[in-house]
Specification:
Largest sheet: none
Order of helices and strands: HHHHHH
Structural class: mainly alpha
Number of strands: 0
Shape: extended
Length: 161
């Protein structure tokens, strides 16, 4: 029992020592980094301290508190300088032709039917199928994922999402 007490005291002393060392650390700036690399990605404006309640002893109800939180979030999110993707990245996105989209949707549907007919899908096959489903539009993704989930829930398809 004395050994455990001694180890506990030693452990607490080590934690206090490490915490004091961490508090003493200052942020390190890498001088060899390119300009702008040491700056935060998203710049958040300074927040003013909250004002005192005009009526002392008055408490806010839930509805009023939610309204204030929504206003503050909207103000803060509007004030953030969000980084914009480069124009080359936006230009690189190719809109999918509707015929190609329909063919991709049919192909994914056939693959799902094939796996349902087999009764199981491996993790690797599921990952490949999900990568193909990611190429679909949001509605197609939702439909195909719904088919997989319904088949799994019905016991027609064994596997993991």
């Amino acid at each position: 029992m004395k050994v455990l007490a001694a180890l506990s005291v030693l452990q607490i002393a080590a934690i206090v020592f490490l915490a004091s060392r961490i508090m003493a650390l200052e942020p390190v700036v890498d001088e060899s980094a390119p300009p702008g690399a040491n700056e935060p990605i998203v710049k958040v404006p300074e927040v003013a301290p909250p004002e005192a309640s005009p009526e002392p002893g008055r408490f806010l109800d839930e509805r009023e508190l939610r309204r204030i939180v929504r206003e503050e979030l909207a103000a803060q999110l509007g004030a953030i300088d969000w980084p914009q993707p480069p124009a080359e990245a936006l230009a690189a996105v190719d809109p999918i032709d509707p015929i190609e989209r329909q063919q991709q949707l049919e192909w994914v549907g056939q693959e799902i039917d094939r796996y349902i007919g087999r009764g199981e899908i491996s993790d690797l096959e599921m990952e490949a199928l999900q990568m193909e489903m990611a190429k679909l539009d949001k509605e197609g993704q939702k439909r195909m994922l719904g088919r997989i989930v319904r088949a799994m829930n019905a016991g027609e398809l064994k596997g993991r999402l």
